[in-house]
Design a protein that fits this description.
Layout lengths: L2 E5 L4 H12 L3 E6 L11 E7 L4 E2 L9 E4 L11 H24 L5 E7 L10 E2 L10 H14 L8 E6 L1 E4 L2 E2 L1 H9 L12 E2 L1 E3 H14 L3 E5 L5 E2 H12 L10 H8 L4 H4 L3 E2 L2 H5 L9 H11 L2
Parallel strand pairs: 1-2, 1-5, 2-3, 5-6, 6-8, 7-15, 8-13, 9-12
Antiparallel strand pairs: 3-4, 9-10, 11-14
Helix pairs in contact: 1-5, 2-3, 4-6, 6-10
Length: 304
């Protein structure tokens, strides 16, 4: 039985991923910073770690074939100096601690490490593939770049290393869909600025499917974990409005207003990144939701 170590297991992606892996009969080791909690699944064991203090229970690595590293503080919080440090360190310290633990062990697991399409520079015309190296110099781009550099060190240990550049995750249990769909239901949905910025999205079910696909096929290198049909932000809001049967009549929310409301973090909703999942398409990954209309319809149906 394949044994998989998962970090960030209680987050939006981790929760659904663990359920999926358990349903396929995998054995799971979970690393958590929380007080040890019990699980009803016999094939799951929970271990503690503290990346901040460079502490880890090394038993978590015993017999592990794959590490799926999703650990990291949420980036959609106000970018104060303190929070910026937390966002960066939570990713760097956890990945470095895993690297040091693997280096000391006899294991050479396949690493699947989360990343984000925020590594690419905002551009309204360019279509990015995994081979592009036009990276953002903004805070979020710098975080992702440093995170990927930490993950790539696993290659020095002869570990297969997959870096997932994850797009806008659409789910009814968190992420962007809920805050976008709620006001839209009341006819209060609005895009930001002119709404022409590209949104490279992915349904949560497909993201879990992509992780499993990378696991099964031992994919290496960077992978754009996005759906094959990015849309303009304006189209995203209008598709949600149509799906919930609501009118969409509000103009775009101006940049200066969001700057006051969100501070420096406002760039996240104004950035335009078209990230094409070229490697997944070339390898014939079968998407459940390749188009936004089907994705939105599925989420709305589940939310009733």
């Amino acid at each position: 039985m394949m044994r998989i170590l998962v970090t960030g297991a209680t987050g939006l992606i981790g929760t659904q991923l663990c359920s999926h892996l358990l349903s396929k009969g995998y054995s799971l080791h979970i690393l958590t910073t929380r007080t040890p909690w019990q699980t009803n699944y016999k094939q799951t064991r929970v271990f503690q770690w503290s990346p901040q203090n460079a502490q880890i229970d090394h038993r978590a690595l015993e017999g592990v074939n794959t590490i799926i590293n999703l650990a990291g503080a949420k980036i959609n919080q106000r970018w104060t100096t303190k929070n910026k440090r937390l966002i960066l360190n939570s990713r760097i310290q956890s990945t470095r601690l895993l690297f040091d633990a693997v280096k000391q062990s006899k294991q050479k697991p396949h690493l699947i490490n989360a990343s984000a399409i925020g590594i690419y520079r905002s551009d309204f015309q360019r279509h990015y593939t995994e081979s592009d190296a036009v990276f953002s110099n903004d805070f979020d781009g710098e975080v992702v770049r440093q995170w990927e550099e930490e993950a790539k060190q696993f290659e020095e240990l002869s570990c297969n290393t997959t870096i997932l550049r994850i797009g806008l995750v659409l789910s009814i249990k968190g992420g962007a869909f809920v805050p976008l769909s709620l006001p839209t239901r009341w006819g209060l949905g609005a895009w930001f600025g002119n709404g022409k910025q590209w949104q490279s999205w992915i349904h949560i079910d497909d993201l879990v499917g992509v992780i499993d696909y990378c696991l099964q096929n031992q994919m290496e290198g960077c992978v754009n974990a996005t759906a094959p049909n990015p849309v303009r932000q304006r189209d995203l809001i209008q598709t949600i409005a149509k799906g919930v049967g609501a009118l969409q009549f509000l103009p775009g929310i101006p940049k200066f207003l969001m700057s006051i409301t969100l501070g420096e973090m406002h760039k996240l909703v104004f950035d335009s990144i078209y990230a094409k999942p070229e490697r997944l398409l070339d390898s014939r990954y079968q998407y459940q939701f390749p188009k936004l209309s089907a994705c939105v319809a599925d989420l709305i149906a589940k939310d009733k």
